[in-house]
Amino acid sequence: MRKKIFILKSFFVIVLMAAVVPSHAWLLYHKPAFKGQLLYPETSKPLEGVAVVVVYEKRVYGPAGSGTEPFDVREAVTDNNGIFFVPSYTTVISPFSTGGECVRFVFYKPGHSSGFWPASLLSYYVGVGCDEKERFFSENFGKEGELLLDPHPDKPVAEWGGERPHKVIFGIAKLPKLKTREERRKALAVHVDPEFLHKTPMLKQLLAEEEKYLGIGIR
Prior knowledge:
Number of helices: 5
Oligomer: single chain
C-alpha cells in the first residue's frame, strides 16, 4: 500500500513539474562567469589570498515536497590585485529538480568577515538579494551601475520603505576586518558542506590555519 502511495505521489510531482517547468529546462543548469575584486575596507588596497567559493544549488522535488540543496562548488583565490574569476558553469541535473536557484558566494580569509559590501556604499549594514549578488559579480566589472539593495535588513520594511536602487561599482567589494576572537570564531562557520571541502583546498587550508590560531582544533 505504501509503495502504491509513493508511486502515485511521484507521478503527481512529475505531472506538476511538467506543467510549470519548460521541458527544455529540465536537465540543463547554467550560471554565468563571476569576476570580482576584494579590497581592504580601511585602505581600499587589494585583498590577496581570499578563498572564494561559489556554491551551486538546485531545487529538488519529492513526495514530501521540495527543498533547496547544494550539488557542486567551484573555488577561486584572489591574486595580488585582489581579483578572482570563476568560469561559467553548465551541467545536467535530474528531472526531479530545477536549476532556478541563486548561487551562494562564500569569501574567507582569517580575520575578515565572510560577507561582502559593495565598495561604493559607506554603510556596512547593507543586505543584497541573491539575484543582485549574481548580477554584481557577473555584469559590467569595474563599471558603475545600480543594484536593488536593502540598506536596513534588520528593520521592518514599514520603517524605511523597502529596497531601492543604489549606485555601485560592479564586482568591487570590501571584506570588513573582524575585531574580536569571538567574531573570528563565528566566521569559521562558513556555509560549505563538508562533502565539498575536497573541492575547496584553499578554503580548507585557511579554516585549518584559523582553527589552529584560535586553539580550537584542526579540521
